[in-house]
Write a structure and sequence with these properties.
The chain is α/β, with parallel strands linked by helices. Helix content is 35%, strand content 16%. It has a five-stranded parallel sheet, with helices on both faces. It binds flavin mononucleotide.
Length: 192
């Protein structure tokens, strides 16, 4: 029985002023209010090489790979805000998810995806809010065995979405975000 779900939260953007990072920060706050312990990271702090199977044996001690594996192993769930690049997810997000799906040859890391509950978000200055990329991301995570909650959130015209206090201008959006994070938390706690 898990009383305080541990969530790992990150965006799929490397950009300093990323809207998706901002969005995942707001989601992390909502999840904390809902009772989760949230570790918020930036993928720019974990620069993994582009996955080439030939290099995997020599990269097993790569410090950022080890650090990210430890964070993934420790988390009960993930909150991911995914920018949309040409209708799909970003290369850095796919590369990260691929690395985390690989086993360490010495057994020190087993992919933990099958035990993860995942909440998805996206943000874009455009009209569709990045929703097309989320269907690809949902497929990928489902294919590795994660449970992606049905509630997801795509924020269009994101440059106008946030108030100065950091939450959404539109109160209905705050409620939708809360519904998504609550769903992740309740499933992990076995309440759904
Ligand atoms: C290569 C590339 C492709 C893009 N394709 C899309 C797209 O298909 N749909 C969309 O809404 N925005 C697209 N954008 C714009 C991004 O949504 C925008 O740059 C956004 O701010 C990226 O997220 P971030 O602020 O979290 O980095 C694209 C941007 C780049 C660099």
């Amino acid at each position: 029985m898990i009383n305080t779900p541990k969530l790992l939260a990150f965006s799929g953007s490397l950009r300093n002023d990323s809207w998706n990072h901002k969005l995942v920060c707001v989601a992390a706050d909502a999840a904390r209010k809902g009772g989760a312990e949230v570790t918020l990271i930036r993928l720019s702090d974990y620069r993994l090489p582009l996955l080439n199977q030939d290099d995997e044996p020599s990269l097993q001690t790569h410090p950022e790979l080890l650090a990210l594996r430890a964070l993934f192993s420790d988390a009960d769930g993930l909150l991911i805000a995914s920018p949309e690049y040409n209708g799909s997810l970003t290369p850095v997000l796919k590369n990260t998810l691929d690395w985390m799906s690989r086993l360490a040859p010495d057994g020190s890391y087993q992919s933990a995806y099958p035990n993860k509950v995942v909440g998805l978000l996206s943000a874009s200055p455009g009209n569709l809010g990045g929703i097309r990329g989320l269907s690809h991301l949902r497929d990928i995570l489902t294919s590795v065995g994660s449970l992606v909650v049905p509630q997801q959130m795509s924020v269009n015209a994101v440059h106008a979405a946030f108030s100065e206090g950091g939450s959404f201008v539109d109160e209905a959006m705050n409620k939708r975000l809360e519904a998504m994070t609550d769903s992740v938390i309740k499933i992990i706690k076995g309440q759904r």
